[in-house]
UniProtKB/TrEMBL annotation:
Residues 3-138 form the Lipocalin/cytosolic fatty-acid binding domain. PANTHER family: COMPLEMENT COMPONENT C8 GAMMA CHAIN. This is CO8G protein. It comes from Scytalopus superciliaris. Keywords: Disulfide bond, Secreted, Signal. It comes from the Eukaryota. GO terms for cellular component: blood microparticle; extracellular exosome; membrane attack complex. It is found in: Secreted. Pfam families: Lipocalin. One of its GO terms (molecular function) is complement binding.
Amino acid sequence: QLAGRWFLVGMASRCSYLAEHGHQLEATTVMVTIPDRQSLAISTFRKLDGMCWEIRQRYLPAQAPGRFLLRGHGHGSKVDVVVGEADPSSFAIFYYQKGRSVSIKLYGRTSQVSDTIMDKFEQHIRSMGLSEDVTYYFPTYGFCNSADEFHILD
């Protein structure tokens, strides 16, 4: 159900990088495939220094439906991924937890979502103790459709 093309619409996070660089966000698209009926293969397309990059990740199935594990490099670098709410035809809200920090991302099937979906996203943000000052919205234009460079995160 989650397979296909998504647009990153918004994100809430206390990440210090976002706080410093939130004004430089680039339009971001995500292609989701489900290669083995369990894990999610994620290809994120975004611009960096004017070039389109593809970042590949694999979300591995965790103990319950809608829960995944994203393994990073090094000790303690795993990220728990949970589908918080989704209507596969229009939107998906994902939670990403690494240690004690949580980020929430809103993906849409289109680059702009309805006010109703935006309200749902804001409810999820508040329920996690985050606020508008750590919420960032992504541009709705200037998308990459393919990559000039590849960067693979295993």
